[in-house]
Every structure is written in structure tokens, then in C-alpha cells.
Amino acid sequence: MFGFKKRFFIPRRRTRPHPVFEDHLACCRPGQRVRVKRIDGGWGMRQRLGQLGIHPGDEIIVTRGGALGGPIVISVHGIQVAIGRGMARKIKVDGNEPAR
Predict the structure, then answer these.
(1) Please, what is the end-to-end C-alpha distance for the chain in angstroms?
(2) DSSP 3-state helix, strand, coil percentages of the chain (rounded to 5)?
(3) Which of 1, 17, 53, 85 has a CA that sits 20 to 30 A from residue 68's CA?
(4) pLDDT for residue 88
(5) Do residues 40 and 92 lie in contact, with contact meaning Cβ atoms separated by under 8 Å?
(6) Which uninterrupted H or E stretch holds 85?
């Protein structure tokens, strides 16, 4: 009997804490004013977004969002910029207040 239990021992499942879900720019609605928390991506993507004027801590207003998966038009420092959905998913934002 001792060998049977030892052979078919099933280890306990380790519980992990739930992941923290963050909002990204692609899930924002038109008219929302959000603040960039961080940018997930490589050096090239951070460089490109920096050239467009998007940095962590900046305030962004979502002007238009394509309903069928088109680009997202945002306003940064008074300039309107169009960003693809793939890039927008890598921009983590904070805050959901409507634009003034």
C-alpha cells in the first residue's frame, strides 16, 4: 500500500495572485482624457512614440476611434496624431475622465 500512494501522488496546485489588469489606449472611448502611465514595447516603438510627442506622464485626449478596427486619433499637446491599434494596445493609460 505504501508504494501505491507514493507512486500516484498528485502535488497541490499552487495558487497565484490574480494579474493586475491595466487599461490601454485601444480600449478608450472618444472624448476620454487619459494620462500615459507607461509604454510597453521595444526601443524602436518608444523612439517612434517619443517623436510623435507621446511620453509617460503626458495627457492624451482620444478624439476618434475606428469602430471597425481602424486607427485611433488622439490629441497630444494640441496636435492630432493617428496611431494604429497595435501601438495603442502597448500604451498603458490611467484615468477615465471626459474631456473638457
Answers:
(1) 74
(2) 25, 35, 40
(3) 53
(4) 93
(5) yes
(6) helix 85-89
Q: Determine the 3-state secondary structure of 62 from DSSP.
A: strand
Q: 10-residue block means of pLDDT along the chain (100 residues)?
A: 55 58 82 92 92 93 84 94 93 73
Give the largest Cα separation in the chain, rounded.
Answer: 76
pLDDT at 67: 72
Q: Is residue 11 part of a domain?
A: no
Find where cell 488622439 sits. 74
Q: Could you give the CA distance from residue 59 to residue 33 in angstroms, rounded to a whole number? A: 7
| Number of compact structural domains in the chain | 1
Range of the domain at 92: 22-98
